Amino acid sequence: MTAFLLLGVAALAVSALTLFSGFGLGTLLMPVFALFFPAPVAVASTAVVHAANNLFKLGLLSRHARREVIVPFGLPAIGAAAVGAAVLGALAALEPLWEIRAAGLHSDTTPLELVLGVLILGFAAVELAPGLGRLRISRRWLPLGGLVSGFFGGLSGHQGAFRAAFLAALGLSPAELAATQAVLACLVDAARLAVYAVGFALAPRALATGFVDWRLVAFASLCAFAGSVLASRLIAKATLAGVRVLTGALLVITGSLLALGFT
């Protein structure tokens, strides 16, 4: 019962928050799953909830998606995600730089996680810096944003933070931003999962162990759906400034967790 309560509350709250920012569900939910399951099972369970929620958000918000952003950003992201997923195997063998064991917590930071964490914290500093909220990124940089977010999405799964850093300054409304990010997330997920399925057997082995509690996964997915529905009803009242602050705060959390090895 504790697992259902904790995972349900976490999935609902995180899903509602991340509807506005477009990222963070996997990063913030996986540690909760890890409280109850071994790491491979926690990753696999989180991936199922993440994919299901992205598809659900797409159904809720697809009419607001901006095609002029999706095409130049999404097409490069698909190819880059496939490349990043292929590179993952080569980097998986790198030893952690350090380990932290304190108060029952254990983390280890790989070189990849440290680089990603520092980059994301840099984006957070830009996002939260006074005056920079008025900046607008030219649309000619969208293909570069797609390449960066797609590659890191395939490499580590952390696509959303990089995508948000490029899209948050385009001047889209909160609904347009959330819908466009949902479409792009589904495209990258499809590309990287296809490569994972061919090149890596981790998820099938984890699922074959029989330790995945599909009742918890289904319950967490339903709670995530509820969080998305709740946030979608509030999104019309959201302000662009509020979304930028929320995005910056989640970038700080994501970057810090990555750099410290807690994701």
Brief summary of the model shown:
It is built from eleven helices and two strands; from the N terminus they run ααααββααααααα. The chain has 263 residues and is mainly alpha-helical. The longest helix is centred in the C-terminal third of the chain and has 26 residues, at 174-199.
How would you characterize the overall build of this protein?
There is one protein chain. It contains eleven helices and two strands. With 263 residues, it is mostly helical. It has a two-stranded antiparallel sheet with strand order 1-2. Helix 1 (2-21) packs across helix 11. The longest helix has 26 residues, at 174-199.
Which helices and strands appear, and what pairs or packs with what?
Elements: H1 2-21, H2 25-34, H3 39-61, H4 67-91, E1 98-102, E2 105-109, H5 111-128, H6 142-156, H7 160-167, H8 174-199, H9 202-208, H10 214-234, H11 240-260
Antiparallel strand pairs: 1-2
